[in-house]
């Protein structure tokens, strides 16, 4: 799909941009008939071809979230192209292609505080929150490992007074910063401060176009009005804004209506995440459900106008595979480390040992090896491990203690 992005030399002609040069590999960003494409050369070219193709296909066939004069936001979940952070992503994917896995995304729970009381909340147990110094140290360690996406998440990051300081702390030449919020405490002033701190993408979840249904999920009266107001404030502040929802067999028929609502709000992307079971027997999406999502994904992203659609059914299903323990690591509010937010097992604590040590421990388990095109928490064999967690045990449960 053509993107009218200008990268011009002094003669007014489009020029190639050199993104990455390491021994054996050079990656350039080319303009081919108005379409951005990545081209590799060098003896490592064949190794990198699969992941370059995974990026090139969406660039060619899908509408971007936003186009500036000098860069394109292919998805609000990804760094701008071109940018120093995108170059780091290419380097990380090169390392992964060579078998050296990098936690490209690291998400941080920064507070337990939240005015909502959602049943699906995955905030960790225990007591207390990590102090700012510990979070900053973990951010530094993640960046040194190659992380390119830092996400601040539940409870509600806006209820932690240092959230603007933490966003500002992240080196924007090394990572983009995303933030989830239910929107209950957004104000025009806080939206402006998020923009000034360098937030890349504001994520607000809407669970239904019916305010009563959304409020019932949040278990908070007025939550729908607050969330939609937060989206509008974010847009007014000049932020990238994504409207998110969790999709299950119960609400899959509502997705077209949800997309239309996202269009009316004017968000940059409509983001679908599959609902995750917590124990054996919990419902999961069927193959037919996933086909509905993928058909909608391809139809919307090949049609001009309206927000782009993101779906982890495509991104982690067809494109990259499950990222838990392979491209993703999650830092719990008290410092425990999980392979992703949804897996209820811990593999160490950032307060006790370096992040790199814990990542290496996760990578040793066979569950986090090999390309898997479905969520690990949707695989019956892995879900059986939930039965071995002692009753009333605090989560995340130490994976090494499973009997």
Radius of gyration: 21 Å
What share of residues are in beta strands? Answer: 15-25%
Spatial strand order of the main sheet? 12-11-10-9-8-7-6-13-14
- What pattern of helices and strands is seen along the backbone? EEEHEEHEHEHEHEHHEHEHEHEEEHHE
Sum up the overall morphology in one term.
Answer: globular
- What is the tally of helical segments? 12
Average residue pLDDT: 92
Structural class, by secondary structure, is alpha/beta
Number of strands: 16
Helical residue percent band: 25-40%
Termini separation comes to 52 Å
Low-confidence stretches: 7-12
Please describe the biggest sheet, giving its number of strands, its sense, and whether it closes into a barrel.
9 strands, mixed
List the helices and strands and how they pair.
Layout: E1 17-22, E2 25-32, E3 35-41, H1 45-61, E4 66-67, E5 72-73, H2 84-97, E6 105-109, H3 132-145, E7 149-153, H4 163-169, E8 176-181, H5 188-197, E9 201-205, H6 211-218, H7 223-236, E10 240-247, H8 255-265, E11 269-274, H9 287-301, E12 308-311, H10 312-319, E13 328-331, E14 337-338, E15 345-346, H11 355-364, H12 380-383, E16 397-398
Parallel strand pairs: 6-7, 6-13, 7-8, 8-9, 9-10, 10-11, 11-12, 15-16
Antiparallel strand pairs: 1-2, 2-3, 4-5, 13-14
Helix pairs in contact: 4-5, 5-7
């Amino acid at each position: 799909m053509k993107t009218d992005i200008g990268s011009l030399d002094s003669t007014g002609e489009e020029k190639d941009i050199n993104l990455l040069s390491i021994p054996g590999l050079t990656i350039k960003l080319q303009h081919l008939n108005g379409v951005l494409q990545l081209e590799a050369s060098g003896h490592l070219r064949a190794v990198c071809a699969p992941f370059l193709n995974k990026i090139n296909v969406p660039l060619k066939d899908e509408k971007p979230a936003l186009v500036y004069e000098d860069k394109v936001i292919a998805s609000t979940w990804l760094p701008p192209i071109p940018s120093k952070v995108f170059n780091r992503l290419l380097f990380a994917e090169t390392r992964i292609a060579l078998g050296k896995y990098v936690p490209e995304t690291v998400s941080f729970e920064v507070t337990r505080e939240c005015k909502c009381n959602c049943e699906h909340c995955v905030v960790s147990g225990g007591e207390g929150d990590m102090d700012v110094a510990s979070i900053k140290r973990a951010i530094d360690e993640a960046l040194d490992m190659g992380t390119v996406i830092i996400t601040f998440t539940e409870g509600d990051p806006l209820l932690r007074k240092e959230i603007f300081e933490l966003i500002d702390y992240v080196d924007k030449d090394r990572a983009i910063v995303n933030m989830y919020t239910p929107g209950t405490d957004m104000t025009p002033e806080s939206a402006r401060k998020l923009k000034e701190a360098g937030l890349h993408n504001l994520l607000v979840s809407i669970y239904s176009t019916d305010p009563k249904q959304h409020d019932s999920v949040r278990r908070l009266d007025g939550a729908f009005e607050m969330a939609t107001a937060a989206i509008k404030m974010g847009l007014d502040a000049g932020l990238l804004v994504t409207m998110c929802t969790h999709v299950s067999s119960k609400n899959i028929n509502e997705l077209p209506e949800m997309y239309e609502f996202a269009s009316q709000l004017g968000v940059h992307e409509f983001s679908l995440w599959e609902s995750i079971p917590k124990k054996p027997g919990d419902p999961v999406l069927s193959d037919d459900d996933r086909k509905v999502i993928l058909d909608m994904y391809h139809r919307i992203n090949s049609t001009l106008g309206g927000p782009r659609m993101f779906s982890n059914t495509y991104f982690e299903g067809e494109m990259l595979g499950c990222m838990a323990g392979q491209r993703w690591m999650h830092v719990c509010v008290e410092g425990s480390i999980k392979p992703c937010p949804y897996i209820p097992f811990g593999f160490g604590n950032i307060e006790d040992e370096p992040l790199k040590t814990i990542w290496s421990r996760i990578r040793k388990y066979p569950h986090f090896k090999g390309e898997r095109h479905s969520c690990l928490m949707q695989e019956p064999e892995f879900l059986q491990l939930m039965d071995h967690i002692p009753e009333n045990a605090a989560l995340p449960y130490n994976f090494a203690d499973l009997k």
